[in-house]
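Propose amino acids for all 176 sites.
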């Protein structure tokens, strides 16, 4: 008989594990970034224009599975940090009964330089004004791209799209 019972992990234990893994990955990313910067500077080259931004948002989906979303202009590729010219903004997608809303943080963008392209399945956001932003957003439901309405205030882009009502499944056939 075992004196110890196997204890199930609580939500907070799982969250702590996720943060511990994130901290370790971030430490590795930071070390690689510093190595890259020192190699470039030792050759007498300029390291590039900042800012350098890397961030994550961790959410728990309806299925209980944690989802990690990266944003910024630093990405890991082949185990090494890659600095991109375009910044990937932090984006929220909100599904309502008959609409899908997209809220994107793109501070410093000029309203006239923001381009939004919508299809039934995704929205592409591009902005240029000193800083460059780029994000492809997969939508949770099919939408009517012609219904899209966008507004930009105080560095926040808000896009609203009407959902497409699903057609009935097939046509009933009378049996003779």
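Proposal:
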């Amino acid at each position: 008989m075992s004196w110890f019972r196997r204890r199930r992990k609580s939500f907070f234990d799982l969250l702590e594990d996720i943060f511990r893994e994130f901290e370790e990955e971030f430490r590795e990313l930071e070390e690689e970034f510093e190595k890259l910067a020192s190699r470039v500077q030792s050759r007498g080259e300029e390291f590039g224009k900042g800012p350098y931004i890397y961030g994550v948002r961790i959410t728990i989906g309806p299925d209980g599975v944690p989802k990690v979303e990266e944003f910024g202009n630093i990405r890991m590729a082949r185990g090494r940090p890659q600095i991109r010219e375009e910044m990937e903004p932090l984006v929220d997608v909100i599904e309502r009964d008959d609409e899908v809303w997209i809220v994107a943080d793109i501070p410093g963008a000029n309203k006239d330089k923001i381009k939004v392209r919508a299809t039934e399945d995704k929205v592409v956001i591009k902005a240029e004004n000193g800083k460059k932003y780029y994000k492809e957003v997969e939508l949770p439901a099919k939408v009517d791209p012609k219904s899209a309405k966008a507004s930009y205030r105080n560095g926040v882009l808000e896009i609203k799209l009407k959902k497409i009502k699903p057609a009935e499944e097939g046509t009933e056939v009378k049996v003779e």
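The radius of gyration is 22 Å. Residues 11-42 form the longest helix (32 residues).
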